[in-house]
Amino acid sequence: MAPLSGQFLLIGWLLLPYTAAFLAALLPPLARWLAVLCCLATGAVAVAIQAGALPASLSLLGPYGVELQPDGLAAPFLLLDALVCGAVVLDGWRRTLPGPFLLLLMVLHGGLASAFVAVDLVSLYVTLEVVGIGAFLLILGSRSERSLWLALRYLLIGNTVMTLYLVGAAVVYLTQGSFRLDAVAGAGAAALALLLVGLLTKAGLFLSGLWLPRTHAEAPAEVSALLSGVVVAAGIVPLLRLSSVVPTLETVLPMIGLASAGLGLLFALVEADAKRLLAWSTLSQMGLVVLAPAAGGLYALGHGLAKAALFLVARRFPGRDLAGWAGRPLAAGVWLPLWIGSLSIVGVPPLLGFFAKSGLDRALPEPTGLLLSLLTVGSAAVYARLWGAPLHGKAAPTPPEPAWSPGVLLLLLALLLLGAAEATRTWSPELLPAAAKAALVLAAGVGVHLLLQPLRRNPWFRLPDLEGFPDLVGGIGVVGAGLLVWIQ
């Protein structure tokens, strides 16, 4: 009876966001509370999965129907979904949100939750399309011509790669008679390449993810927090699941991850716009998430919480131009989240990012671990550019913004409490050298920043623009062709 009850609970939880969105359309005053309810339910499911209180798998509609796997891999991503969406709701509690924002947020939340537990190709296709359409409509929230083009570009690219994904899923079914992810291993190189193009683009990795910086930077702050905090994870989870059943991906995915980490880091180091710097950092950090499936969930959780907090406070920045950033005082409600979020991404104890990075370091072989350290030095150099602004307690935020965002406070509290929980769970003397290493990496990153700072004043210190629509399509084509050749 207990497993049956667990199955009913899972089905009810998956349907809850869509039911709540429908009720929000009928009763708009309840929209905020319904959105909070959805986030609380997803957080409770994540905790229940970790406690082993829910069935590890769920099959609906027979052997060719929906396959769900609410397992340990899904749990940190579900917690991330709950916290980031909940923080966005709290951040906008006192503001009038544009259009049906909360309704779309609940649909997006439900699509992400389903994508994190789905293990059949058709269910993944449907949920990723729900996430894509929800994100598209949320980007349109500012109703400007630029946001319209960026949203359409996001939708066009997403629909194109998901069409390729669907073709790959059809090939898997024709050759293996199943839509399950574990059937992909025997379907051949062409099917795998088609599936990977779709998932890599959704995850914002390497050349397939070149759509990410401009889209995330130009979207409204709360939408940027969703996109960089949790939406990109919708493509990450299937990639991590595939890497455990397709032996080829054990070498392919880390190489793509390192290439993505290096590309995003390189552009972030020379970027002159604060929000675009954060977006390029997302492309880089997503590359690190896929390096080791065993450590990817915790790393994605740490990054997503911190990056969502950074984007939420970005609307309170005195300006996006990093030139003269050190001369612009920041209010405590901006300065402190900026430091805590960025230090967590760099991997400074006792924040969650430190334990996530330490876990990733332990899961990697020695040569890749050394590369991770070098990339972390680069990340510290990137975020050191945001640490020059002084604290100015009298700097009042622009009305009607409160001094502190409750959503940002939730994310910062999560970084601290989850970090403390990881310290309790994984404490060992080995963490002391890891903490010393983190201090050295931080100091080296600040040194690299100081060396590069004079060069940034030169007009030639720029990289080519790779974000035009032809570049995006070409990048996806190059990745697809490269995958097809590589995994033959």
**Percent in helix:** over 70%
Low-pLDDT segments, ≥5 res = 395-399
In which order are the strands of the major sheet placed? 1-2
Query: Can you write the helix and strand succession as a string?
Result: HHEEHHHHHHHHHHHHHHHHH
Main β-sheet: number of strands, strand sense, barrel status? 2 strands, antiparallel
Number of strands: 2
Estimate the mean pLDDT confidence: 92
Strand content: under 5%
Shape: globular
First-residue to last-residue Cα separation:
47 Å
What is the count of distinct domains? 1
Please identify the structural class as seen in this structure.
mainly alpha
| Count of alpha/pi helices | 19
Calculate Rg over CA atoms. Answer: 21 Å
Describe it.
- The protein is mainly alpha-helical.
- It has one domain.
- It is built from 19 helices and 2 strands.
- Strands 1-2 form a two-stranded antiparallel sheet.
- Helix 3 packs antiparallel against helix 17, helix 11 packs antiparallel against helix 12 and helix 16 packs across helix 18.
- The longest helix has 32 residues.
- It is globular.
